[in-house]
Design brief:
Catalytic activity: L-seryl-tRNA(Sec) + selenophosphate + H(+) = L-selenocysteinyl-tRNA(Sec) + phosphate
Shape: globular
Modified residues (N6-(pyridoxal phosphate)lysine): 292
Helix content: 40-55%
Bound molecules: pyridoxal-5'-phosphate
Cofactor: pyridoxal 5'-phosphate
CATH architecture of the largest domain: 3-Layer(aba) Sandwich
CATH superfamily of the largest domain: Type I PLP-dependent aspartate aminotransferase-like (Major domain)
Organism: Sinorhizobium mexicanum
Number of helices: 20
Family: Belongs to the SelA family.
Structural class: alpha/beta
Largest sheet: 7 strands, mixed
Length: 470
């Protein structure tokens, strides 16, 4: 049969739309999307037929269109298994929220709330009012406000307190955090001139004192979140730096980065300066993140002296950086959990995951090794390995937490390379993200809580050699 004859036999969009499967697809995805998907499949079918290919049965055309619709409907922001070993992974969305926070956020999404409305007086209120007292209680600060994230907090604080003037920072603290947050760039954008003092490894009290002049607006201390300077070093501690600032009537701003409200040693982790310590050491303003060790949604906290917080709140930039009711609700519920530190590791996923004992994770790895090997149709060797989990997001940059996991190593000749294997895991309905290390895909199981879901998900793995399905 020549191609023209076969082309005439290709069904029309309208004919295909009458099939039961596509009637259902219209219910699910809407008529315009289904029609568009069919047009695309029919166009490629026509091309194939013109090139001499067989005319596929109508069922095959329908199946292709439905597969395309399903793929197109799948969110790229869908949940995944973070088995990277980094608990607060910035690229994977950092902290998982506590159930109490999820409930509070959901309720705030569904209903009207008294966001800027004072229920007692019936007058206008402020959105910070809901959290101020709680933050002050937990940190010992006089006052507090909340913005979009800690980068916004730093930008707003600098602009509010020192625009057109100078901020003095140690050369050892001029950090760059992933994603183009560089302290010198933030200073520039906030309209503050950076005055660097000391050297990379050593900064003395006299370096700060000598740099203070009529143009100085503030002194700043920055937590070196993702590195440590070791060896022949000297830094001026927060308490001493506060004294130096106050001698000259200047404020000290301390950017804590992650910050923590709890004593991490309780959870078997190394000490990280708490927000209360930074406040009691005399900083006038302390900034920290909501979604790092604190374990809440993305947010930036600014806490400190009332006079400075008022100045910050009257900056028109505050409006551009403020948070919405959903996050405020989640933050409030998260902060409330800190009133009972004994139950934090039960209720706050960040602490629960960070404090999970290695023996527990090792037992899980032993249970899962053969299950995973079987799901991979024995294309890989799967072995239980020791891991070191990282906290991530610039908290405790040098400390790791002993953990356990699985090493997946493709057999040579299995038709599956390491890159194929990692891609197949990323293409699962619930993507599995590990890390490649020394010829294996390592799955650190510290953050694997839904073991049954993980196993069920593996049933969707493509057979080796076929690669991810489209
Ligand atoms: C992480 C971090 C920031 C940025 O905080 P985000 O909440 O990610 O905006 C700023 N400063 C320091 C020291 C940090 O560690």
């Amino acid at each position: 049969m020549d191609a023209n004859v076969r082309l005439r036999d290709i069904p029309s969009v309208d004919e295909l739309l009458r099939s039961a499967i596509l009637v259902e697809a219209v219910e699910c995805f809407g008529r315009p999307a289904v029609t568009e998907a069919l047009r695309k499949v029919l166009a490629t079918t026509r091309d194939d037929v013109r090139k001499g290919g067989e005319l596929p049965p109508a069922d095959a055309i329908i199946t292709k269109a439905v597969a395309a619709l399903e793929e197109n409907d799948r969110s790229t922001l869908r949940p995944l298994f973070n088995l990277t070993g980094t608990v607060l992974h910035t690229n994977l969305g950092r902290a998982l929220l506590a159930e109490a926070a999820i409930d509070a956020a959901t309720a705030a999404m569904r209903e009207a709330v008294a966001l800027e409305f004072d229920l007692a007086s019936g007058k206008r209120g402020e959105r910070d009012d809901h959290l101020r007292a709680l933050i002050c209680e937990l940190t010992g600060a006089e006052d507090a406000t909340i913005v979009n994230n800690n980068a916004a907090a730093v930008l707003l604080v600098l602009n509010s307190l020192a625009a057109g003037r100078e901020a003095i920072v140690s050369r050892g603290e001029l950090i760059e955090i992933g994603g183009a947050f560089r302290m010198p760039d933030i200073m520039l954008r906030s309209g503050v001139r950076l005055v660097e003092v000391g050297t990379t490894n050593r900064t003395h009290a006299r370096d700060y004192r000598d740099a203070i002049g009529p143009e100085t607006g503030l002194l700043m201390k920055v937590h070196t979140s993702n590195y440590r300077i070791e060896g022949f070093t000297k830094e001026v501690g927060a308490r001493e730096l506060a004294c130096i600032a106050h001698e000259r009537g200047l404020p000290l701003v301390n950017d804590l980065g992650s910050g923590t409200l709890a004593d991490l040693e309780r959870f078997g982790l190394a000490h990280e300066p708490t927000v209360s310590e930074a406040v009691s050491d005399g900083a006038d303003i302390v900034t920290f993140s909501g979604d790092k060790l604190l374990g809440g949604p993305q947010a930036g906290f600014i806490v400190g002296r009332t006079a400075f917080i008022e100045k910050i709140n009257s900056n028109p930039m505050k409006r551009a950086l403020r948070v919405d009711k959903i996050r405020l609700a989640a933050l409030e519920a998260t902060l409330r959990l800190y009133r009972d530190p004994d139950r934090l590791s039960e209720r706050l996923p960040t602490m629960r995951l960070l404090s999970r004992p290695k023996t527990d994770i090792g037992d899980q790895a032993a249970r899962l090794a053969s299950v995973v090997e079987h799901a991979l149709k024995s294309a890989c060797r799967v072995s239980v390995v020791d891991c070191e989990s990282q906290i991530g997001s610039g908290a405790l940059p040098l400390s790791t937490v002993p953990s356990a996991g699985l090493a997946l190593t493709p057999h040579s000749g299995s038709g599956r390379t390491l890159a194929d294997l990692a891609a197949a895991m990323r293409c699962l309905p619930m993507p599995v993200i590990g890390r490649i290390e020394r010829g294996s895909l390592i799955l650190d199981l510290r953050c694997l809580e839904d073991e049954d879901g993980f196993v069920a998900n593996l049933a969707h793995l493509d057979p080796p050699g076929e690669g991810p399905s489209s």
